[in-house]
Amino acid sequence: MDYAIQRKNMVESQVRPSDVTDRRIIRAMLDLPREEFVPDRVRGLAYMDGPVQLVEAGGKTRRSLLAARIFAKLVQAAQIDPTATVLDVGAGTGYSSAVLAQLAVRVIALESDAGLLKTARAKLPAVDSGKVTLVEGELPTGWAAEGPYDAIVVEGAIETVPSDLLDQLKDGGRLVAIVGDGRTGRATVWLRDGGAFGATEVFDANAEILPGFHKARAFAF
After folding, report:
1. Are 176 and 154 spatial neighbours (Cβ–Cβ below 8 Å)?
2. How far is the C-alpha of 121 from the C-alpha of 111, rounded, in Å?
3. Contact status, residue 90 vs residue 154, Cβ threshold 8 Å
4. Per-residue pLDDT tens over the stretch 4-50
5. What is residue 181's predicted lDDT score, i.e. its pLDDT?
6. Burial class of residue 117 (count of CB atoms within 10 Å of its CB; 0-12, 13-18, 19+)
7. How far is residue 89's CA from residue 13's CA, in Å, rounded to a whole number?
8. What are phi and psi of 103, to 5 degrees?
9. 199-213 exposure pattern, b = at least 16 Cβ within 10 A, e = fewer
10. Considering only Cβ atoms within 10 Å of each terminal Cβ, which end of the chain, N or C, has fewer?
11. What residues pair up with 55 in beta bridges, in sequence order?
12. For residue 190, which phi and psi values (nearest 5 degrees)?
């Protein structure tokens, strides 16, 4: 299987037609071997037009790479400057962090799943120039030790936005995430202005809800 051709087809048929105009994002997604960041059993699906499963749901939360077009649009909405420090929340196997590392000066890749983190540690050194720092912790808590951040990218859907993440933004910083229920949603950008945060919905998107980002369920009587 010629993954280089599949990679080009992914960019030309999925990413570019989705109004992704940041050439840095396009270049990164053309260069990085997405197939190296997915399990062998789904390697042939690495460039499909949709999410790629990383962890099956057997007894634990299912995890996937975001669909390429959604990921690219979400990253573009973050408006990442070359001098930025970025927090990648739900970094999974490290593909998203590798892309972000080609846009920013530093990336903190936060993951709560030990298995995914192990894969990221094995895969990232081949493509990262030392910009990515992998850390393990609960996703909604963020990683305040390396903040504040110019941008925070949440790699999945959320039903609630924890104040901990917003608090870790620099003044003028942006947090991007998909607000939804796992079936439908809207990609949303939060912009920090001093102690206030403005939220803007930017496009329709859906993704699986990340661990820790579900709303508390109320009992009905």
Report:
1. yes
2. 11
3. yes
4. 999 999 999 999 999 999 999 999 999 999 999 999 999 999 999 99
5. 87
6. buried
7. 27
8. -110, -30
9. eeeebebbbbbbbbb
10. C
11. 63
12. -105, 130
